[in-house]
Amino acid sequence: MEFDRLARDKGWQQLHTPKNLAMALGVEVAELHRHLQWRSDAEIAQLMVSDAGAEVAAELADIQMYLIKLSASLGVDLDRAVADKIVENRRR
């Protein structure tokens, strides 16, 4: 994954512990919240077609990268976990 290469190049690998990755993921989710909080669905739709839509997309990318890295560091097959969760949700 390119994120791993970047982490190696920047010397961040030793910081990518499960705890730190979970905390970074939370920070990125909070940054996404900043863009959406207190806005109506219509305002968010407008936001997404403005220049600020790219900022929202960048926050989502950060979230995905940290989530993938966190799941890998914990030995979780994220695709399998999602599939299992969908089965569980259907059962309920």
Instruction: Tell me the series of helices and strands, N- to C-terminal.
Output: HHHHH
Secondary-structure-based class equals mainly alpha
Shape: flat
Mean pLDDT: 94
Q: From the alpha-carbon coordinates, what is the Rg to the nearest angstrom?
A: 16 Å
Count every helix, treating DSSP H or I runs of 4 or more residues as helices: 5
Distance between the termini: 35 Å
Amount of beta strand: under 5%
CATH second-level architecture: Orthogonal Bundle
The parts where pLDDT drops under 50 for at least 5 residues are: none
CATH C-level class: Mainly Alpha
**Biggest sheet record:** none
The strand count comes to: 0
What is the count of distinct domains? 1
**CATH superfamily assignment?**
MazG-like
- The helix content is over 70%
- In CATH terms, what is the fold-level topology? Helix Hairpins
